[in-house]
Amino acid sequence: LGFRTSSRLSTKFQLLVHGAYGYLDDKFKYGASLYYMFRKNPHTFAGIRYKYDIEQLGQSENAFLEDYIFRTLLARSRSAKLTMSKDFLAYVENDWFMGFSNNLYLKYKILYPINSQSVFKFNEDGQEMAKDKITLSEIQLITHFAYNEKFVSGAFRRRSIGTKYPILDVSYTYGIKNCLNSDYGYHKLDIRLRQWFNIGSVGWSRYMFNIGKVWGTLPYPLLKIHEGNETYMWDEFAFNTMNYYEFVSDEYFSWYYTHHFDGFFLNHIPLIKKLRWREVVYFRGLIGSISSKNKNYSVFPDNIYFLDKGPYCEAGVAIENIFKFIRIDGIWRMNYLDHPDTRKFMVMVSLWFNF
């Protein structure tokens, strides 16, 4: 059960509250958030959030949250890799000018293992140790640059409608050891570059490159858990044939390329031309490694693997603009097929709007 205030109460702040009861674990989950809008142009707002709830680590920024009804209806497997978390977040976002912004986050989080594991297991000083929680304190700074970027704005939220120029996002995270009893000190750097561009009458393309590194000896939940997807809803920011928690790294590079033909082939088929369907192809890959210190520190669950047999790759074809907003994808997983619960080919659906 949840609610949020609207602009009828205030155009400056918004309050969100939710609560839930898990009838299998007999636990209450809850959270509250408060946003405050200082100004809309340039965009400046701040917020705080407290949450005690389940969380799916290794889920993309674009994925449905665990409590969304679509996440339940379109799940292709039971949610058995969840983590309980208690976290406090304070942040501020500021546009220096249109398309150039900084986000500053102060995070305090405690992770509790659930389901198949009752404790996190690690190797310290040559002995196996067990912890019933992981505590972390972080400062994160995200820099976003997109020249001539345009937005659609509501009362409290806005959504980017992109730019024809490259978009650069740089994220730096500093984990502060012993701050509020946090367990680990570390540094994380993640850089992402993306752009779309026209190719004459053949349609348009989009590419995305992502490179990152983690410094420090850390338990596996704090390393880079590569974004998987265990639903039938296609996710542009995830590896859609990869399971959650399947691959972990502390150095990584990924790439994504897609081309939208906009009917270049299908328009030559008379009946299909009237439907205005559009064809798409794409390819996604990932290279990653993990240091010997991090590999030896954690006692990894059986479902976690390393990218030590070469790049992970998947490719797909899609038909979009079905009834003007539905997209159907066929996706092939090209390697690491010997892992449990993997599928070489999948059909997925999504809602896709071309403006």
The biggest beta sheet reads:
15 strands, antiparallel
Cα-based radius of gyration, to the nearest Å: 22 Å
Strand order of the largest sheet: 1-2-3-4-5-6-9-12-13-14-17-18-19-20-21
- Report the uncertain regions: none
Number of strands: 21
Order of helices and strands: EEEEHEEEEEEEEEEEEEHEHEEE
What coarse outline follows from CA principal-axis ratios? Answer: globular
**Individual helix count:** 3
Average pLDDT reading? 92
Share of helix, binned: under 10%
Secondary-structure content class: mainly beta
What is the rounded distance between the termini?
Answer: 34 Å
Quaternary structure of the protein: single chain
**% residues in beta strands:** over 45%
Detailed description of the structure:
- The two termini are 34 Å apart.
- 5% of the residues lie in helices and 52% in strands.
- It is built from 3 helices and 21 strands.
- With 355 residues, the protein is mainly β.
- The protein has helices at residues 69-73, 270-275, 292-297, and strands at 2-4, 13-22, 27-39, 44-55, 83-97, 100-113, 120-124, 127-131, 134-146, 150-153, 158-162, 167-175, 186-198, 204-215, 224-225, 248-249, 251-260, 278-289, 312-322, 326-333, 345-351.
- The strands form 4 sheets. Strands 1-2-3-4-5-6-9-12-13-14-17-18-19-20-21 form a 15-stranded antiparallel beta sheet, with no helix packed on it. A two-stranded antiparallel sheet has the order 7-8. It has a two-stranded antiparallel sheet with strand order 10-11.
- The longest helix has 6 residues, at 270-275.
- A hairpin with a 2-residue loop joins strand 5 and strand 6 (100-113).
